[in-house]
Amino acid sequence: MVRVGFSNQAGETVELTAHIKPFMTHHDSTAHYQGKASFEITDVAFQASVGTKMDAPRHRFEGAENIAELDLDRMILDAVVIDARHASPEQELGWADLDIPQLLAGKAILVNFGWDRYWGTEVYRQHPFLAREVLSGLLQAGIALFGVDAQTPIPPEIRSARPTPGF
Question: Strand, coil or helix: what is 43?
Fold first, then answer.
């Protein structure tokens, strides 16, 4: 199994994965039903905001919609996949590095870095990113949804800024 660790706020390295274990086994539950029935309850624990996920507007904007409030029709969109598999670790990709069509309004834009090939290695954290002018241009083009196959599309010099300016 591939193991990926990150440091938490206390400086401890934690493994980013799902932890699955019995909460109550069939054997443990039998006593509750005088031996006539049994069941198992499984405990699943994992970190949020890692791996395949979707952030709702509330993730960034206090008082905005959370995932439960988003209408599913807003996620069923025509999509454009931008092939960025040629990118190198920590490479900034500008307009000249990407083949992006002109008509993007109302579409889902998905950037494929192919970065899953580095899962479980240090290189995974050194993913490429889109130049600020590309991200701003996509927003100005009226895209409806944006996704990448890396931790974030945001340039490293502004990732730690709170709030992240312009994003």
Answer: strand
Do 90 and 152 lie in one domain? The reply is yes
Q: Go through 104-119 and write b for each residue having 16 or more CB atoms within 10 A of its CB, e for each that does not.
A: beebbbebbbebeebe
| Cis preceding-peptide flag for 128 (omega within 30 of 0) | no
- The whole-angstrom separation of Cα 143 and Cα 4 is 32
The reply to whether 153 and 83 lie within a common domain is: yes
152 vs 78, 102, 125, CA distance in Å? 22, 23, 10
Q: Domain range spanning residue 12?
A: 5-45
User: Do 101 and 31 lie in a common domain?
Assistant: no
Task: Please tell me whether residues 95 and 23 are part of one structural domain.
Answer: no
- The answer to whether residues 83 and 155 belong to one domain is yes
State pLDDT tens for residues 88-104.
999 999 999 999 999 99
Would 39 be classed as within a structural domain? yes
Its pTM surpasses 0.70 = no
Distance CA 71, CA 36 (A): 45
Compute the radius of gyration of the chain from its Cα atoms. Answer: 21
pLDDT tens digits for 103-121?
999 999 999 999 989 887 8
